[in-house]
Each structure stands twice: as C-alpha cells, then as structure tokens.
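Troubleshooting: if your tokenizer reports a length mismatch, compare your output against this known-good record of 419 residues.
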Amino acid sequence: MKKISERVSLKWRFFIYLAVFTLVMLVLLWLFEIVFLDHFYKDIKIREIKSASVEAEAALQQRDYSDALSALSAQKDVCILVATQDAYVLASEEASASCMIHKMSRQRFLELWQKAEANDGLYLIRFVMQSPKGFGDQKEKAHAPEGFLLVRLVTLYDGSRAAVLLNSVISPVDATVSTLQVLVLVIMAIMLAVALLLAFYMSRKTARPIERLNEAAKQLSEARFSPPVEGGGYREINELNITLSKAAEDLNKTEALRRELLANVSHDLRTPLTGIIGAGSVIYENSETITKEETKQLAKNIITDAQWLINMVENLLSVTRTTEQGAKINKTNEIFEEIVAEAIHKVKKRYPDYKISVEVPDEILLVPMDPLLVQQVVFNLAENAVKHSGDKENIRVRLYSRDDTAVFEVRDHGKGIGC
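Known-good structure output:
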C-alpha cells in the first residue's frame, strides 16, 4: 500500500484529497437535509410549543390576558386552552380546525391534569391527529398528520391554579422531503461537478511549479540547474528556486575548481613520471654501454622524481583531509621550532646541494596548530624557494614572534615566480 502511495504524484494526491473532502461535505448535506429533516422539524416544533407555554404563563399573570393569548396563538400557530381544575374554560384560542384540545372530554382533561402534576407541572405527548382509536392513541397510522399536546400547570394573577393546554399540528413533510430529495440531488450533482473541476484545477496549478522545479533539480547532478521562470505565485517555491540556484552556482564553482585541480595535478605528476620513465628507459636500453657513474646518476634522478611524487600525494591527502573535516582543523599546542626544523630537514634531504640557513628565537614558541598541515606548508614554501630562486647559497628561513603571533618567513634572492 505504501509503495502505491509513493507512486501517486502530488497533483493526483491533492486532487484525491479535495475530491474526498467534497464527497464528505455532500454526504453531510444529504444527511442533514433529507435523512434528519423530520427529526429536526419535530425538535423545532417541541421547542416552539414549550416556548409558547412559557409566554402564555407570563400573559396569565395579567388581569387582561385574552389579547396576549390571541396574539401568541396566531404567532406560534398553536391552539390554546386555559381551564381550571374542574374543567372550567377561562380562555380558548383555536388556530386550526383540526385542533384536538377543544374537543376533549372532561375526563380526558382531568387525566392530563393528573399527569402534569405527576411530572412537576409539565406534560408533553405526541399523537396522531386521525387515529382509528381516537384521541391519545400512540400508534401512528401511515400518512396521518401528527401533533403535540403540552399541558403546563400555572398560577394565575389572582393566585388560583389553572392548566394551559397547547396543541401544535405537525404538517406532513413527506411531500416536502420528496421535493427536497430531487433538489438536493440536483444541487449535489452540480456541486460535485464544480468541486471536481475546481479540485483538478487547484491540484494542477499547485503541482505544476513543483513538478517543473523537480525536473530542473534533476539537472543538479550535471551542475547545469536552470530554475523555472515562474514559481506559481508561491513564496516557498520561489525561495526553493533561489536555494537551488545558489546550490547550482556553488556546484559550478566546485566543478571548475575540480577541473583546475586535476589539470594542475596531472601536469605536476606527468613531469616526474616522464623523468622516471626516461631515466628507467636509458638504464634498460643502454645497460651495457653506459658507465657506472651515469647509471648512479640516472638512479638518483629516479629517486628524486619518486620523492617528488610522494610529496605531491601527501599534499593531496592533506587537502582531502581538510576538506572532509569541513575545514575544521584539530589544533594542539606544538613547539613551532621543531615543526620548522623537521620540514627544513626534509627539504635539505631532497635538495642536498642547497644551503638553507634557519634563524629561530631564543624563547620557545608554543603555538596551537595541526602539526602535519603546518609542516607541509613550511615544506612547500621552502621547496618553492629552492626550485624557483636559482640561488643555492642565499636561502634563509626565519622564525620569530610578533605580539601574540608566530611568524615564519622564507627569503631568497632569486628571480622569483612571474605573475
């Protein structure tokens, strides 16, 4: 399942999410508009008839309450009957011809009074308006209109007790539901079509710049990244464009440095290798004719060139080690004079014909450094002086301190390196 999910593109994933969200919303619309319509309607009617009973009780606290009850009956569309405990009618408002409270018997009224008393002064029943068994039958007949009857026991303005009966008829909603079903189906079909089109458009608009950026990013391995012209109007994608462009620029610089390094290294390696091959070929091809001294000199040249190759490899390893460490140099406190002396010793061993003088201070210079890297730097500087000065007598190495800094100098009197 996970592999299938990984193969789904961002565009279609976004489209699926929006489509599922739309379907969920449409299902909720169907449930609340059709399935639960009858339940909500009856709950509303119950709240209305309870609210009307509270308003009727408030109206009965006044001596002249007939007008208030008449207005309440018209406003809430409920029948109202106010009667004393002995069924004497104090007020009557009929809002519907099918109202049941104006047709009930004295016995039924007394039964309702007793039930209201048993329920803290409030009693509510649901009934079928047209029942073959008469009023109060709880068994519904198919398609028969229903109603609610609420009985509230109240205290009148003069302190006497009375019962307020309210009768609310529930209009049949079958025809309404059928009509709503058709309307909701049409609306759902339209909404689904629009939502799917919108989801496809939004997913395509959102995913297109990312797909373009992904295709452009694949060029990073070839160091030829070219960011898309448009970012789709999204700040994050534009920032990613800038980041990848910077990465491509750095890669181009790194690639240029790599090519330059390879060219320089190949040149520096080719020179001693050519000398080694040449000297070895002379010894191999003329072993019977060349003198012993010539053979020793050629062998010495081979050794010198081989040592040069070793030095080159050490330089490359030093550079690689520094790069791999992220330019972080592990420093320890070292005696600088010993590091310089070791480097100069290697130079004199490689170039015995050159005289290199070393000047060191009287005090010991304890300097935090990476000894191998510093020794390589001193060696390279001294060797450059030997190779490029042309002067075998006047090469001087000086080591001294200046404030809190250790200074190393290599001085010669040759022609130097041309700029």
